[in-house]
Amino acid sequence: MVSIVNYKMGNIRSIQNALSYLGVDSRVIDSPEEILTSKKLILPGVGSFRVAMEHIRAMKLFEALNEAALKQGVPLLGICLGMQLLATEGEEEGPTKGFGWIPGRVKRFSPERLSIKVPHIGFNTVYFEPKSKTLFEGLETCADFYFVHSYRMICEEPEKCVSSWADYGERFVASVEHRNIFGTQFHPEKSQSNGLTVLKNFCAI
User: Fold this and answer.
1) pLDDT the model gives residue 113
2) Is residue 187 among the annotated active site residues?
């Protein structure tokens, strides 16, 4: 059973549909008690970093997620904004503290400097770090995934936590992994067979 955390900013239905296609049972949760009884957690998200953290704190989910991820060792997957919230801080709508599980900051792409359109929307090739086997087992050295984002995570210690990269005007972090904590900037639930493989691998942890 996979628990999908509803903090009022997630694309929950598409994740549920993808898990159902894989034959994986899921439930949508929104309370600290449910988080603390979960065996696997998905933290989805679309929208503002600041608003997301405000919702998480107002719903009293912050402490429970820390307990589950850091003390109980529950496997957790952050998707898109959900991955960004794993960082130390986000700059959207002013500096806002995240969970701090992945040391780093979330900053906006610079379209003026990079001559790119923001947000970054569409399929893009993701290149896997050789050591990163957990989420990408069964795929080759790279694969295409679907992105929709204006911000990207800049990790302080990429050699310790970055599991894949992509290019959009610059090389940026496409996924992270640290012990039981995982994150994908792309949307596996919208990435066809490659995304289903990632979700299947997470559910198999």
Assistant:
1) 86
2) yes
- Phi, psi (rounded to 5 degrees) for 201: -65, -40
Active-site annotation holder among 120, 149, 187, 203? 187
92, 155, 178, 189: the catalytic one is 189
Active-site pick, 80, 155, 161, 203: 80
Amino acid at 166: A
Q: Which CATH class is domain 2-203?
A: alpha beta
Asked if 55 is an active-site residue, the reply is no
Distance CA 59, CA 195 (A): 30
Helix (H) or strand (E) holding 112: helix 111-114
Write down the residue that tokens 């310790």 correspond to. 160
In SS3 terms, 57-80 reads as: HHCCCHHHHHHHHHHCCCCEEEEC
Distance CA 197, CA 175 (A): 15
pTM of the predicted model as reported, rounded to 2 decimal places: 0.97
Cα dist. 197→18, 97, 114, 116, 133 in Å? 10, 32, 32, 30, 12
Percent of the chain with pLDDT over 70: 100
pLDDT, position 156 = 97
CB atoms within 10 A of CB 196: 16
pLDDT tens digit string along 146-200?
999 999 999 999 999 999 999 999 999 999 999 999 999 999 999 999 999 999 9
